[in-house]
Every structure is written in structure tokens, then in C-alpha cells.
Amino acid sequence: MSSVTNLSTSGLQLRRGSRPVRSLVELLSSMRFAISLLVVVAIASIIGTVLKQGEPLNNYIDQFGPFWAAVFHRLGLFQVYSSWWFLLIMAILVVSTTLCLVRNTPKIIADLRSFKTGVREQNLRAFHDKAEADFALPRAAAVARIGAALRARGYALRLREGDGETLIAAKAGGLGRIGYILAHSAFVLICLGGLFDGDVVIRLQMALTGKQMLKTNMAIDQVPQRNILSPANPTYRGNISIPEGSSADVAVINLGDGSVLQPLPFTIKLKKFIVDYYSTGMPRLFASDVLITDHRSGKTWPATIKVNEPLNVDGVNIFQSGFDDGGSHLQLHAWPMRGAGDKGFAVTGDVGSTRQLSNGRSTLRLELGSFRLLNVENMSTGKTDKTDKGGLLRGIDRHLGAAVERGSSTKLTNVGPAVVYKLRDASGQANEFINYMLPIQLDGMPMFVAGERSEVGGQYRYLRIPADADGKIDDWMRLRAALADPDARRAAVDAYVKQALPANATKQLATQLEATAGRTLDLFAGDLPRDPKTGAPLVSSAGGLPALGEFLQRNVPKDQLNKASDVFIRVLNGVLWQLWSQERQHAGLPPLHEDEATNRYFNAAVLALSDASFYPAPLFLQLTGFKQVQASVFQVARAPGKVIVYFGAVLLILGVFTMLYIRERRAWFLLRDADGGSRALMAMSTNRRTMDFEKEFATLRAATLDATAMRRD
């Protein structure tokens, strides 16, 4: 038998009111219902953890497809913690937990006050832990002795005198029952604080004041008043991006499908943004030297904001959350990737700006997306683990980035500045590019690396172009232009035929070799043979080695394919060597000398020419110079609910510890007169039986019932 009052898991049962209201209150106050809601919240939290939150919708479309992206979007899974159903569940959970407290707290308080002095002898004999003893002392003396022993061990006592008997009711550890109240109250407070500091207050304010979300990009000074919240907003959390030398006093609050602006009670001016790096190039420290101007007092003072060291101004915390480009000025050279031109032209612009590029026939819009001064990439080349998919080298192979096997080791290296830009055609279709400014050591030689992707969030596919002896890209660009020039190709074929055949070779042999070399070079250059009837290309590849391979597969028997491939590759290399020699001669460069370095450059250049057939843009923008302008990204938060959350967290810790480590114990001693002395019946109970309780029972029994021999039932 236990003396502890059991807390019911059923709901609060009202005696008045309509039946639906009584049923609703009983459901909401049911512990089973609260646990069910907690399970739903836990599942939602798992989804919010696994599924990246707050990404642009296009990223989710690329990841899940249009159908499932639309379904998940309607369910609010991309903004779980601010979705209406999650907030509704949290609100119901708060109500349910509050009703549980209302239902059980009076019982707990009453149980704490009660010493249960109404128990009878038969009740005590039904306890698991009980003992009896005979005393030589009279009943009054035995009562005093037992009472003193109990008080010495921290027990509170109540006596009940009866006809020839005395009942001592003792209890200790009652605070363990308070833990239930503390823990459940803490949960309510934490939920209320979280809801108050979330989107609920902002959305409620918008509904009451007619504010609307801004769903288009617009300069801050042009945003209409209906998209701007009140400066007296009691709670908000927004972001500010400030370039060096600029200032801001308005934060942007993202609300899923749009955003609103929040005026701040101060102005932040970024004097300087400081970034310190590890030797690997990974950022080690972010800090911002700022000037704060208070709008009410007009005072201005300097401050430094670091990661994990926020600045508090007028109850608003300013956190250093990251950094961005603040509109760096970029200098680029646009190299043609189509046609026989090799000069190109200069392009300048600031990050975030756009400009039109036109050749008179077509127009492209250049969108300068971002500039990164340091780029830390995994340059490991080990091949012990074929499952590795990481690192820059993973995407750099022939045909614009087919996967290659790379090792599981990690070698983080700073590969220097890079620019990310988009080229958008007249139909609105765009490809995104990332071009590294400096050559990167790949397979033992310097390469200019250019990444391309057609889908947002997709993997980059890389084109690598070898750097010439001067560390530049110019020699390869001239070779590419020469390959696109039919006259230059014919001249290279003639030079190859003269060099490959002896002086006494027949005209027929020279004609055959000339035709083979010309066809091979034309296929490689993308000048494809066409069907005389339909005019359609006879091969589907755009050019390069794939076009040559497809042509051979269609025109050469399988048993002769390997031999024919070797012949065509030798011819191709010979003609391209002559083309390269002529290009260098026209540029006024020294003649070629065959050595290991020259051959390695030539082989890499041939592969790059082949890959360039798949490059989706007519221009290659090479970063030639820059003037960096950094921007600091701050998160500003007015969160009065955090005090409630912190207080709730303290209560939760106290509640959990009291429930786990403070056990309620109750003991009863029924003493009766017997043969000039007295006889005592002892019983003891607890809300949690442990080995410690067994020891405490034995200790308490020895301290109180040691007058004579003791009998244990």
C-alpha cells in the first residue's frame, strides 16, 4: 500500500457548463492529450532539424521536384517553427499543461499539508516495509524517544492521541512533489516566452494594424509605410547587412513568403570589419568596429561587436552573425568562347550590379553575384576511399566536371579570390559561374578553374584551362580562337601533311592524309559534317573528343575501332601542334621546343579545348583585379521573452532535480500500552522504492525500535 496521492492522467471534469465545453476541457487537461501533442512537436522539431529552413523556394524545387516542393510548402515544412499549425499546437500545449497544473496542484498542495494521521492498524500492517517492537518504557516516554529520533533525521511530525494509543505520523522530502509543479510551470513559461519572442506578436500586430509583407526586392528608402512595423514593436528579430563606411537603422524581418522592415532606436555605422584566419584559410575571428548613435539622446559612441559577444543598446541585442560582400569593385576581362576572336574586352562593375553585354546580334545580362577573397577548398588527391564525394577536385575532370575518384583524406587549401556571376539570355534562362582568379595546382601543374551550373543549389561542373609559361590564360585563348578559324585550321592541316610525309610521297597519299586530318580537326572544332538532304549534323556531340569518338563509332567497324582511334588521336595531336605553332608565330612568341613541360601543357590544353565544346556561355569572364568592400551582417533582437524563458529554464532544472533526487518518505508509529511498557508498530512508504530507501528503512528502524528484541512481519 502506498500513501502517496496518485496524479490522475484523465482530464479536468467540470460539473457545470454544456456537454461539449466539459468534454473539451477534459480533453485539453488530459495528460494523455498533452503527451500526444509533445510527440507531434517532437516530430515537427525533427523535420525542422533535418530539413534546412528558410531557403529560397527554387532550392526546394531543385531538391524535391515541383510537386513535392509545393506540397511541403503548403504544409509549412520550410518554415516549421513559424507555421500556423506549429504555433497552434504550441498554444494548445500551453493551455493543456496549464489545465493539468490547475487540476493537480491543489491535490499536491493538500497532500503536502496532510500527515495522514487517519490511518488504522490494519492499514499499517498492509505496508511492505513494517516492523514491530516491545519497549520497557511507558508509551509517553517511547513516543518522546521516537519523536526525537525522527526530528534528528529531518522528519516533521504530527501526533494523534487515542484510547490507549498514540500515532506518530512523520514525513520528509515533500519538496519532491513540488518538482512536478516547478517542471510543468517551467514548460508553460518557456513556451510562452518562445511564442512571445517568435512571429506571433509580429503577425498579430500586422493583422491589427493592416501591415503587409513585402514580396519584392526594393530599396529601403522606397518601401511603403504599409510594409514597415512600428518602432515601438515589443519583440522582433531581424537582420542588417552594412558595408564598410555605411550605416543603417532599419532591420529586415523575414516571414517566410515575404519580409517587413523594423525601424531601430539607433543607427549603426560600420567603420571596419575585421576577419582573422587560420593558416588553412578558415575564418577564426569575426569582429566589427562600429559607431552607435542613439536616436533619443543623440549620443554617439564606438563599440566592437564580436561573435558570441553581442552589444546591447536600448534593450536591443546586436549579434555578429556573419559577413558578406558590400559591393566590391571588380575588374574582369571577357574572353570570347565562340568564333575566331581572341581579344575580348574589359568589364567593370560592383558586386550586386547588372549590365548588358551585346555583340550586335545577341544580348546577355551579366549579374555580378558575389566576390570571395579567400576560398578554402579540399584539395586532397588520395585514392584510398572511392566513396569520397567532397572537395573541389571532385568536380574537376573532363567534360566539365564528371566525377573522379578522390581520397578520403582532407587537405584544406586557400585557392585565392573568386567571382560568382550569372549570364542571363533574352529568354530569362541563366547559368551561374564561379571563376577563380589565380591558377590552382592540379595534377602537378597550374590550372585556371571555372565552374558552371544551370540549377540553383546544384553541383558545379568545372572547366580547367592550363596556365602558360607566364602564368596567364592568353596562350590557350589564342589556341581556342585559332581552332575556331577555318583558315587557320586549313593552314595547320597543310603544315602537318608536309611535316608528316616524306618529300617523295605520292599526291594520292597526301590528299588522303589531308582529308583525314581536315575531317579530324573539323570534328574536334565542332564544325560537324551534315546530312546533305536534311542538313542535320551527323553526330550529336557539340565537338571535342566526344564528337570524334562518336564519328568513329558510326563509321568504323568494331574490330578496327581501337586501331582507328589511335591513328585519329595521333593525327589530331599532330595537327593541333601545328595550329599551336602557327598561333604562337602570329603572336610573335618564340617557337615551340618539345620537352616535358611543353608536352604536359599541350596535353592539358587539348583536353581543355575538348571540354570547352560543352561550355554553355559565349564569354569567359576572367577576374583581373578588384577593390574589396566588406559588409558585416548583424542580427538585431529585442527579446523580452528571454527573461521568461531563462526563469522557466531555472524552474525546469529545479523541478527535474527535485523530482529525481528528493524522495518523499512517510513513516508511522502506532504505540499502545502493553504489560507495563509499550508496543510499537512501524510502517514506512515512499513514492519511489530504491535501494537507498531500503537502507533508510533499516537505519530508521534501528534508531527507533532498539529497546528490545524486534519482530519483523
Automatic annotation (TrEMBL):
Q: Which UniProt keywords apply?
A: Cytochrome c-type biogenesis, Membrane, Transmembrane, Transmembrane helix
- Which residue range or ranges hold the ResB-like domain? 31-698
Any one GO CC term of this protein is:
membrane
Localization recorded for this chain is:
Membrane
Q: How does it sit in the membrane?
A: Multi-pass membrane protein
Listed InterPro entries: Cyt_c_bgen_Ccs1/CcsB/ResB, ResB-like_domain
UniProt record, GO biological process? cytochrome complex assembly
Q: Does the keyword Transmembrane apply?
A: yes
**Bilayer-spanning residue ranges:** 24-47, 84-102, 178-196, 643-662
The reply on keyword Iron is: no
Primary localisation category: membrane
Q: Which Pfam families match?
A: ResB (PF05140)
PANTHER family, per database record: CYTOCHROME C BIOGENESIS PROTEIN CCS1, CHLOROPLASTIC (PTHR31566:SF0)
**What is the designated name of this protein?**
Cytochrome c biogenesis protein CcsB
Organism placement in taxonomy: unclassified sequences, metagenomes, ecological metagenomes
Q: Which gene encodes it?
A: ccsB_3
